[in-house]
Amino acid sequence: EADIYQTPRYLVIGTGKKITLECSQTMGHDKMYWYQQDPGMELHLIHYSYGVNSTEKGDLSSESTVSRIRTEHFPLTLESARPSHTSQYLCASGSTGSGNTIYFGEGSWLTVV
Amino acid sequence: SQQGEEDPQALSIQEGENATMNCSYKTSINNLQWYRQNSGRGLVHLILIRSNEREKHSGRLRVTLDTSKKSSSLLITASRAADTASYFCATDRNAGNMLTFGGGTRLMVKP
Question: What integer pLDDT is reported at residue B1 of this predicted model?
């Protein structure tokens, strides 16, 4: 089992609200990622970080932002949620020496009404 | 467009049968990985095969890689109902742990 945790697991919020999805890992991994996945669909990389104070945007443009102030913590924030943000958000982490294997959290299901 | 694409998109078999899923990709890779996702959950790493390997086994899983055809296959032998899940291949585009996932194959194993 991977030691990577996401909260909340499920969230229903109204349009315009600000939300933060939390992701923490206890494996000391330097690399962390956020993927977005609609039900039954492929994963899209939206953000990644190669270490503290390093953040980059992924392949899929996202209105969300991320921060990496501590190695173990990689929160994702939506300043003003919209129904189009409804999706599952998956956090993952990996280390430089792990052969590119990454470990996923259980995901956060976000519904914006 | 995606780096990796799985085929078929969906597969339904009876318990005890073998399940084969294929993955094709477009550019050269360092390695290819297979992940499993139970409904509504995160992905779990199954197996990694490096570009200089042709076949790898792990329990009931057998993965092959053909770099000349830019394709890989995942075989699950003697399937069980608990194998019901989506299976994704992932390729790395560079040495920076940047994985690109395909659309997945949804496997249903009927008891």
Answer: 42
